[in-house]
Amino acid sequence: MSERFPLPTLDSVPADIRDMMLKVQEKSGFVPHVFLKLARRPAEFRAFFAYHDALMLKEGNLSKGEREMIVVATSAANQCLYCVVAHGALLRIFEKKPLLADQIAINHRKADITPRQRAILDFAMKVAFESDTLEDLDFEMLHEHGLNDEDAWDIGAIAAFFALSNRMANLSGMMPNPEFYLLGRVPRDKSSSK
Q1: Taking a C-beta distance cutoff of 8 angstroms, is the pair 63, 114 a contact?
Q2: Largest Cα span, the chain
Q3: How many CB atoms lie within 10 A of CB 160?
Q4: pLDDT value at position 194?
Q5: Nearest CA among 167, 172, 184 for reference residue 77
Q6: 8 A C-beta contact, residue 127 and residue 133
Q7: In the predicted model, is pLDDT for residue 192 greater than 70?
Q8: What is the structure's pLDDT at 191?
Q9: What is the pLDDT of residues 30-44, one digit of tens each?
Q10: Are 101 and 113 in contact (CB under 8 A)?
Q11: DSSP 8-state symbol, 181
């Protein structure tokens, strides 16, 4: 399947996209396959990452770890290997808990998370799979944990955006970079960090 949509080389992508990839490579030590896979369509790449960054890098009432929890839980339910593995690595790093991503991917209700985080994930899963049944009570459950309607929007937008991402990863045969599997599980080699 991966040969149907082969990864382009860094030399073959537009300069602004290549520069973005090189910055990621400098920071992480590798170029995640999602960058290369989506770069085959530069306009879509730019739109995808602009919305990704607007959702995932913004300041707000949700931590970076909580945002990644949403991605891992909904991506696991969508059976997206790439997003579970890649965002599971980010979740482990942000939360400094090497077992957490696996727990959330299997069953967030049994994961070692706070009641607030469980409410976030319950809401995200409802948006992802039963959005037509959302009602005031769902928002009230978030309010009980100090989350407001803007937070609900963020939770829902992340779940919805990653539904797109999950489907494109599965469509394109995107496989996780091997490096993702160990990130946040084992201590990083101090000599390789800058």
Answers
A1: no
A2: 52
A3: 16
A4: 43
A5: 167
A6: no
A7: no
A8: 46
A9: 999 999 999 999 999
A10: no
A11: G
The tens digit of pLDDT for each residue in 163-172 reads: 999 999 999 9
Distance, in Å, from the CA atom of 124 to the CA atom of 144, rounded to the nearest integer, reads 16
Cβ contact 146:44 at 8 Å = no
What tokens does 31 get? 């170029």
Q: Among 158, 120, 125, 157, which residue's Cα sits nearest to residue 139?
A: 120
Residue (of 112, 105, 137, 113) closest to 123 by Cα position: 137
Chain centre distance of CA 126: 17
Under DSSP, is residue 59 helix (H, G, I), strand (E, B) or coil?
Answer: coil
Q: Which residue from 58, 89, 98 is spatially nearest to 71, judged by alpha carbons?
A: 89
What would the two tokens of residue 39 be? 């770069």
Mean pLDDT throughout 58-80? 97
For residue 128, count CB atoms less than 10 angstroms from its CB and return exposed for 0-12, middle for 13-18, buried for 19 or more: buried
Distance between CA 64 and CA 61 in Å, rounded?
A: 10
